Amino acid sequence: MRRILAELEIDTVCGAAGCPNINRCFSAGQATFLLLGRSCTRSCAFCCASAKGAAGNAVAGDEPRRISEAAKLLGLGYAVLTSVSRDDLRDGGAAVFSAAIRCLRALGGGIKVEALIPDFQGESAALEIVVNSGPQVLGHNLETVSRLYRDLRPQADYARSLNLLAAAKKINPRLVTKSALLLGFGEKEAEVISALRDLRQAGCDIVCLGQYLAPSPRHYPVKEFIRPLRFARWAEAAREMGFGAVLSAPLARSYWRAQEVYDEFINA
Q1: How far, in Å, CA of 92 to CA of 40, rounded?
Q2: Predicted local distance difference test score (pLDDT) of residue 50
Q3: pLDDT band at residue 20 using 50, 70 and 90 as cut-offs
Q4: CB within 8 Å of 127: residues ≥ 6 apart
Q5: How many CB atoms lie within 10 A of CB 209?
Q6: Strands 78-83 and 137-139
Q7: Are 249 and 231 contacting, i.e. CB atoms less than 8 angstroms apart?
Q8: C-alpha to C-alpha distance for 148 and 156, rounded to whole angstroms
Q9: Distance CA 185, CA 154 (A)
Q10: What domains, with CATH codes, occur in the chain?
Q11: How many other β-carbons are positioned within 10 Å of the β-carbon of residue 191?
């Protein structure tokens, strides 16, 4: 895995985000491809992506081709694409997502593609570019409850993220939509339930809940380490709300076990 990714100069969120599941995923031949570099134009308090020098960073035109080549070499039947936020780009990087999705689908063999996208600053044209390129799953993470957005995601907007998920369903009603919440920021039980209800109202099909782990002492501090039994209760509550598939556990992330979660939804 590491050799192929290095030779093709492909980045993954597994390494860039310090994901706790990297060894499990790499040993199983799974990875989440990171488009558009590691430098983000935003500065969320919980994320390890760098906001320094992001604006104006060149976009590698052959990145979609290299990703499809890696997927072929790795024999992937399910590929996950994501990116940092690139508010400096006119379409927020939507065209690169679209090109990568089309390159992967051109491999044939029934490969499925999940696109975990930023909010594109609410631009509907950018969202349409991605949705119309034909991913099986469109993901966008809500990340936290409404009250904490000002501290954690000052350049994002809670309602805008919900509207994006709802808009994706209007463009393609058959599209599977997905979101995630990180927990342990100091949110209250009622706020978690409210966020889950908001996601369902936006038509979200799949939800993931996981424990926030601070990337460094400079990042937002962990306010609570949540016991597995509480994750199990939230999973039960989410299923009762109508989510077709739920992944709720301390190390759960929106891109972790993505194919298994998708299969759970399809076979429900």
Answers
A1: 11
A2: 65
A3: low
A4: 94, 117, 120, 164, 167, 168, 171
A5: 25
A6: unpaired
A7: yes
A8: 11
A9: 15
A10: 2-267 (3.20.20.70)
A11: 18
Rg (CA), the chain: 17
Single-letter amino acid code for the residue at 144: T
pLDDT above 90 for 27: no
Measured in degrees and rounded to the nearest 5, phi and psi for residue 176 equal -85, 125
Let me know: does 155 contact 193? Beta carbons within 8 Å. Answer: no
Contact call for residues 168 and 131 (beta carbons, < 8 A) = yes
On whether the CB atoms of residues 250 and 228 are closer than 8 A, the answer is yes
State the maximum Cα–Cα separation within the chain, in Å, rounded to a whole number. Answer: 47
Distance CA 17, CA 197 (A): 28
Exposed, middle or buried: residue 56 (CB in 10 Å: 0-12, 13-18, 19+)? exposed
pLDDT bucket at 32, cuts 50 / 70 / 90: confident
Nearest one of 115, 65, 70 to 92, comparing CA atoms: 115
Token pair belonging to 168: 């994706």
Q: What is the pLDDT, as a whole number, of residue 14?
A: 61
Using a cut of 0.85, tell me whether the model's pTM lies above it. yes
Question: pLDDT above 90 covers what percent of the chain?
Answer: 76
Q: What is the pLDDT of residue 15?
A: 56
Average pLDDT, the chain: 91
**Cα(175)–Cα(170) distance, rounded to whole angstroms?**
9
Token pair recorded at residue 225: 């380490």
